[in-house]
Design goal:
The chain is an alpha/beta fold. The chain has 12 helices and 8 strands. Helix 6 (about 145-150) runs antiparallel to helix 8 (about 180-185).
Length: about 270
Amino acid sequence: MKQFDSAGVEIAYLDTGSGSGAGDGTEKPPVLLIHGFASNVETNWGGTGWVDFLRKAGYRVVAFDNRGHGHSQKLHELTDYGAPLMAEDAKRLLDHLGIKRAHVIGYSMGARIAAFLALAHPERVDHVVFGGLGINMVRGMAGTGPIARALEAESINDVTNPTARTFRAFAEQTKSDLKALAACIRSARAPISAEMAASISAPVLVAVGETDVIGGSADELAKLIPGARAITMPGKDHNRAVGDRTFKAEVLAFFEGGKSLESSAALGAK
């Protein structure tokens, strides 16, 4: 992966695909991928098939490791994190690559970052997908304290909270800097109100797994955003929904102006 300087923070990124699109209207806009908490480009987007899927569909694909994650710089102060600040990393990456406008897919924490990018820089976002985060984008996620403490624990064996233990295990699996992740999740979580969500001007697709208790309802969030689509991946939880084939197909249809596959199936059943 390559590196660039985002206002003094080294950010690692991937830029691949046959398209050389700069999002200037001459060809397909590039796709910017923003991963979730404790993840990285390879885990969230490479291993789940997203990068190859989008490349085969003819898109230039740009993805980056969020600050404190993957190959990007590890920071340990709470003030170094927060979705609005991390959205500026995304914007600066687009600047660095000369991309005027892009489709954006964010998953989980990445969806929050994508929302702040769409709010702060609407001219840079063509279409935006909020994956793995539904109504809890507005309601917020409870229980981040136990997750932070789990990340700070000397050993995973000292962690008894089931949800927190899952996050610790995932962080160890991705070989993450636990101190950086603890700072990230403890950082002030800037709220996204219902009014803010309603003001997002880019077309929005909300996609959440049917059994995802972290993200909350896709339909409830979509109802707050004029014209937004919502899809639910049957039988999928927060982690297993990421690479879902229906999710990928729906995103492609969304980007390319096609009808939702769920809508088409519903019409066919009538």
